[in-house]
Amino acid sequence: MHKLVLIRHGQSQWNLDNRFSGWADVDITEQGMTEAREAGELLKREGYAFDVAHTSVLKRAVRTLWGALDAMEMMWLPVHTDWRLNERHYGALTGLNKAETAEKYGDAQVKVWRRSYDVPPPALERSANEAVHDPRYAALNPGDIPDTECLKDTVARVLPYWNEVLAPAISAGQRVLAVAHGNSIRALVKYLDGMSDEAIVELNIPNGVPLVYEFDDQLKVLRHYYLGDAEAIAAKAAAVANQGKAK
Ligand SMILES: O=C(O)[C@@H](CO)OP(=O)(O)O
Question: What pTM was estimated for this model as a whole?
Answer without folding.
Answer: 0.98
